[in-house]
Design a protein that fits this description.
The chain is of the alpha+beta class and about 400 residues long. The protein is about 45% helix and about 20% strand.
C-alpha cells in the first residue's frame, strides 16, 4: 500500500477513538457470538494501528491486544486485504515460531476477515482463534464474513454518534455516556473473569493436570456462570429512557436462531436438552440488528432449556416475520404471565426449584424486540404443559 493510502487508513482507524479506550459492549457481544457459533475459545475485533494492534472487541483472549504487529495474524489480514485461515499454526513455516503460538495463548487455529469501512479502508480484522488445530467450513466462513460486516457497521454507528455528540445532540451524548459507563463496568468486571477462563482452557488441555480436572471443571463452570450474570446485569439494568443503539441491516432469522442455539450449548448439553430449528418454506429475513436479535433469541432459548426436563426437546420455529421458542417444561401460571418481562421478576417455580438466573432474560429480550418495533408474546397453559415465546418483527 502507498504511504498516502496507509496514512488515510490510519486516519480512519483513529477516527473511531477506540484505541486505548474501553471496549464497546456491542463488539464484545459480537465476539462472544462468533466464538459460540464457530465453537472456538477466542474471538476478537482487532484494529490495526501503525505499530500495534488493539482489541475493540474480545472474548477469551488475554490482555487488551496492545501488542506489536510482528506476531499479529490480524496484521497479515490488513496487509493482504484478504481473509486468512490457518488450520494449524504449528504446521506453518512462518507462524510456528511466533510467541503467541509457542506461548500463551497458544494459538493453533486462526480465521480472520477484513474489517472494511464505508470508505473502503481496512481497519483491522474480525477473527476467531483456538488453542486446537481445526478446519472451518464454507458455511462457517460465510457467517464470519457476515459478522465482520456487522462489526464494521457497529463501528460506523459508534463514530456517527460521536460526531453527533460533538455538534450538540443531547440524545447522542446521553447514549455515549451510557455506553461508556457500561463499557467501563464490563471491562472491570468481565475482563478478569474471561482472562481466567482463557487460562483455565489451557489447564484443561494439559494432560499432566488430568488428575486435577475435578477441581478445574467447577472453577470453569462457575466462571462461565459469573460472566453470564455480569452480561445479564449490564444488559438488563440500562436506564429505561436510554434508546438501545441498533444496527439495522439484513438479518436472516435462521442464522439468528442458529447463533442463539450455539450460544446456549453450555446449558443444553449438561441438562440433556435438545434444541432444534424448524424453518418454513418462506425464508425469514427482517431489517434488524443481527447481534441484538441473536441475544433476544438466546434469552428465550436459555429460559426454555432451564425450565425443561432432562431428555426433552426445545423447538425454535422460524417464520417469515419472526420466530418462536417452544418447550415442554413446567409452564407458567396464568397469574404470572403479565409479569414475566418485568426486570428481576422470578416466578414461583424458579424460586421453589432454585433455577439459576436473576430474572432479567425476558426483560432483555423484550427491550431488544421493542427497539425493533416488534412484539414479544409469552403464552403457556401452565401445569407442566410447556411455554411458547414468540417474537414478531416488522418486515420493512
Amino acid at each position: 500500500m502507498s504511504a498516502v493510502g496507509e496514512d488515510a487508513r490510519l486516519a480512519a482507524v483513529h477516527s473511531y477513538r477506540l484505541l486505548d479506550a474501553p471496549r464497546p459492549v456491542v463488539l464484545d457481544e459480537l465476539t462472544r457470538l462468533a466464538s459460540s457459533v464457530l465453537e472456538t475459545s477466542m474471538s476478537t475485533v482487532t484494529l490495526i494501528d501503525s505499530d500495534r494492534q488493539w482489541f475493540a472487541g474480545n472474548t477469551g483472549m488475554p490482555g487488551r491486544g496492545a501488542g506489536p504487529l510482528g506476531a499479529s495474524f490480524c496484521g497479515r489480514v490488513v496487509d493482504r486485504r484478504l481473509s486468512l485461515v490457518v488450520e494449524d499454526t504449528l504446521a506453518h513455516p512462518e507462524y510456528r515460531t511466533w510467541s503467541n503460538v509457542v506461548g500463551a495463548p497458544h494459538v493453533r487455529f486462526y480465521a480472520g476477515v477484513p474489517l472494511i469501512d464505508e470508505d473502503g479502508h481496512v481497519l483491522g480484522s474480525m477473527c476467531v482463534l483456538d488453542s486446537r488445530p481445526r478446519e472451518i467450513s464454507d458455511r462457517q466462513m460465510d457467517l464470519l464474513i457476515s459478522m465482520a460486516g456487522q462489526a464494521s457497521g457497529h463501528l460506523s454507528a459508534i463514530r456517527n454518534r460521536l460526531l453527533l455528540a460533538e455538534v450538540g445532540d443531547e440524545l447522542s451524548r446521553a447514549i455515549s455516556r451510557e455506553e461508556d459507563f457500561v463499557a467501563t463496568v464490563s471491562h472491570e468486571l468481565r475482563t478478569p473473569v474471561t482472562t481466567i477462563q482463557g487460562y483455565l482452557e489451557l489447564l484443561v488441555d494439559n494432560e499432566d493436570l488430568t488428575p486435577y480436572r475435578r477441581l478445574i471443571d467447577p472453577i470453569q463452570r462457575n466462571g462461565e456462570r459469573l460472566v453470564r450474570m455480569v452480561d445479564h446485569l449490564l444488559a438488563g439494568t440500562r436506564p429505561a429512557g436510554t434508546p438501545l443503539p441498533l444496527l439495522r441491516a439484513h438479518a436472516d432469522l435462521v442464522t439468528v436462531a442458529e447463533a442463539a442455539i450455539a450460544a446456549c450449548r453450555p446449558q443444553s448439553g449438561p441438562r440433556d436438552v435438545r434444541v432444534v430449528v424448524e424453518a418454513g418454506d418462506t425464508p425469514g429475513s427482517v431489517p434488524g440488528d443481527f447481534t441484538r436479535l441473536s441475544q433476544a433469541a438466546e434469552q428465550l432459548i436459555r429460559n426454555a432449556i432451564l425450565f425443561s426436563p432432562s431428555g426433552s426437546t426445545v423447538t425454535v420455529r422460524v417464520h417469515a416475520d419472526g420466530l418462536e421458542v417452544v418447550d415442554t417444561g413446567a409452564g407458567i401460571p396464568a397469574g404470572e404471565l403479565p409479569h414475566v418481562a418485568e426486570r428481576f421478576y422470578r416466578g414461583t417455580f424458579a424460586r421453589d426449584q432454585a433455577v439459576h438466573g436473576v430474572g432479567l432474560g425476558l426483560s432483555i429480550a423484550d427491550r431488544i424486540v421493542r427497539a425493533h418495533d416488534g412484539e414479544l408474546a409469552v403464552t403457556s397453559a401452565g401445569n407442566g404443559r410447556g411455554t411458547t415465546a414468540r417474537i414478531t418483527l416488522p418486515r420493512s
